[in-house]
Amino acid sequence: MAAQLHLSVPLPIRASLSSSHRPRMAASTTSLPGRKLRAAVIGGGPAGSSAAEALASGGVETFLFERAPSGAKPCGGAIPLCMLDEFQIPYHLIDRRVTRMRIFSPSNLEVDFGKTLLPHEFIAMLRREVLDSFLRSRAESCGATLIPSLVTDLEVPASENSPYVVHYIAGEGSRRKEKLSVDVVVGADGANSRVAKAIGAGDYEYAIAFQERIKLPDEKMRYYEDLAEMYIGNDVSPDFYGWVFPKCDHVAVGTGTIRAKRDIKLYQRAIRERTRPKISGGKVIKVEAHPIPEHPRPVRVRGRVALVGDAAGYVTKCSGEGIYFAAKSGRMCGEGIVRASEGGMRTVGEGDLRREYLKEWDGKYAATFKVLDMLQSVFYGSDAAREALVELCDDEYVQRMSFESYLYKRLAKGNRWEDVKMLFNTIGSLMRCRIVGRKSEVLSF
Ligand SMILES: Cc1cc2nc3c(=O)[nH]c(=O)nc-3n(C[C@H](O)[C@H](O)[C@H](O)COP(=O)(O)OP(=O)(O)OC[C@H]3O[C@@H](n4cnc5c(N)ncnc54)[C@H](O)[C@@H]3O)c2cc1C
């Protein structure tokens, strides 16, 4: 299949493509006589595969570039229930159905999150190598052409009528240089995005996350049958949390930090220390580390290039969750291009990408990201605040509201009286724990 691609195809695009001020899609696009709109999707993670699937299903000629189809993205692999339905992910791909999330405070106070879950509800734990390869294959079966290759450069045209040229080294482990001309580009190449650099999209603050996959003896693995753990405290991270997420026959144990990246290995040692009785005797089978974006990039659309997933910076700050948002933004962008190009029949411009993708995305998620940003700064600021967070998590109303928003990605319907109670509880917990925090600081001198 890849043989047909080893050539640079000139694309005679005559229309003026990138004016962000044009009012309507039909006015800013031009028909493509005799051929379909051609899109390159760079990166075959959840964002890229979902974009490629939407594009190919909608009639756009789609090329999906992935440098390591047999690799595994460093990731905890926890996804919300709604993703299984929305993205039709078969249940047999799930390693574990977690119904209890045990949270440990800095002083090791523990609370089980999950009391309010209904019998069919759970957090799905998957291995990324399994999920990603499924999503990529589905994009292929919808008509996308997978090109296993490292993209080395994206040539941005000097004229707005000319094609973008994707330069790549074809095949895993090969040195053969190739190029492909396309009309539109989706940058889904993760946190170190080359596409973002090529279009001058600017930088974002990021956390570095470290994770070890540890194979446990069967009797120890039984403890994690349907249980995941979160550890918070200055020992495991000054601004993130440590986790133990169960997989088929191993656990993923990791932590992250934004402020103190150089100390990440110290924090990893601390999370191992805190979990020692439960993971001792285990064998480390994989060690991995990767950046996690902290906020969206200054630019997410430029010309006929759109960034999605981690490349755009769509990870929630409080939880470090990005898989669902990657897949969702990829799909939203792909569908937006299909709409604007009328099924691949017309060219698209920057205005179309802004209107059909960015506006939709921001309308749906900007507020959610802001709220989670705020929660992180309130609750991850100090050990005292973290104690307050864990104390609050014991409340059933807090659990129901948090789980509903996480599992279904919608704001749970609240109860006014309970909301007021929750507000007072929050203030009470913060005040109590700040006092506890001060006392313990005094005592430690
Ligand atoms: C340690 C860790 C744990 C995490 N745990 C969770 C979790 O439990 N749940 C959750 O929701 N999120 C988690 N995240 C975040 C989540 O992994 C990301 O948000 C998500 O993977 C983003 O998907 P993506 O498709 O945008 O990017 P990626 O998954 O990074 O995919 C990018 C793809 O592009 C390919 N690529 C990159 N450059 C090139 C190139 N030049 N040429 C060709 N291909 C290229 C890469 O090989 C990769 O396959 C975690 C992140 C880390 C680092």
Automatic annotation (TrEMBL):
SUPFAM superfamilies (alphabetical): FAD/NAD(P)-binding domain (SSF51905)
Digeranylgeranylglycerophospholipid reductase catalytic domain ranges (all copies): 223-286
Reactions mediated catalytically: phytyl diphosphate + 3 NADP(+) = geranylgeranyl diphosphate + 3 NADPH + 3 H(+)
One family name in Pfam for this protein: GGR_cat
Any one GO cellular component localisation term in the record: chloroplast thylakoid membrane
Pathway membership, UniProt: Cofactor biosynthesis; tocopherol biosynthesis; Porphyrin-containing compound metabolism; chlorophyll biosynthesis
Entry keyword set: Chlorophyll biosynthesis, NADP, Oxidoreductase, Photosynthesis
Enzyme class: oxidoreductase
Claim: Oxidoreductase is one of the keywords in the record: yes
GO molecular function term, any single one: geranylgeranyl reductase activity
EC code(s) of this entry: 1.3.1.83
Biological process according to GO: chlorophyll biosynthetic process; photosynthesis
Keyword Hydrolase (UniProt): no
InterPro entries per the UniProt record, alphabetical: BchP_ChlP_pln/prok, FAD/NAD-bd_sf, Geranylgeranyl_Rdtase_fam, Geranylgeranyl_Rdtase_pln/cyn, Geranylgeranyl_reductase, GGR_cat
Protein family according to the UniProt entry: Belongs to the geranylgeranyl reductase family. ChlP subfamily.
Function recorded in the entry: Catalyzes the reduction of geranylgeranyl diphosphate to phytyl diphosphate, providing phytol for both tocopherol and chlorophyll synthesis.
Annotated protein name in UniProt: Geranylgeranyl diphosphate reductase, chloroplastic
